[in-house]
User: Fold this.
Amino acid sequence: MFKDELGDTGTDKDKRDGVETAPASFEEASINPDLIRREGFASEAEYRAYIATLGGDVSVGDTVEEPLPIYESHVLEGRLQELREELENLRARLHVIQHQAATVVTENVRWADASAHAQLGNQPWLKLAGAMAATFVVTRGIMRLPLGAVATTALPLVAAAMNRNRKLAR
Assistant:
């Protein structure tokens, strides 16, 4: 009797679902009975010798995958549950980080507004706009001046002022 087969004690008949197994399958009938091992091996050498008597190495493609045993499926379900909990934890942390980032941005905007009010008074943006407009108008006015004529006239005056300062410094 194989280890996986149910014994014929009469108590296991309800577990067989009405299907009786044959005492020897077709494959078992064609195999030399001396080569069939029904128990474990005493050593690694004995195992290798047994594989050699069967015909060499067995390739991975010849093996049949069996469904996972119940304990392995429970382990996988437990691990899956742990991963789900970790994912929920990470989502909660990401939500907190997003909330903190939004808070930092709004606080920086409030600080900039308060700083502008402290430096420029009640209407800082209007005052800044006025200063920018005045700068624009003055720049346009300077660009329209004939600087060549002004520089030609002012250059001898600047040189004379520099000479006067040198004489006073001596």
Remarks:
- Residues 6 and 55 are 30 Å apart (CA to CA).
- The longest helix spans residues 70-120.
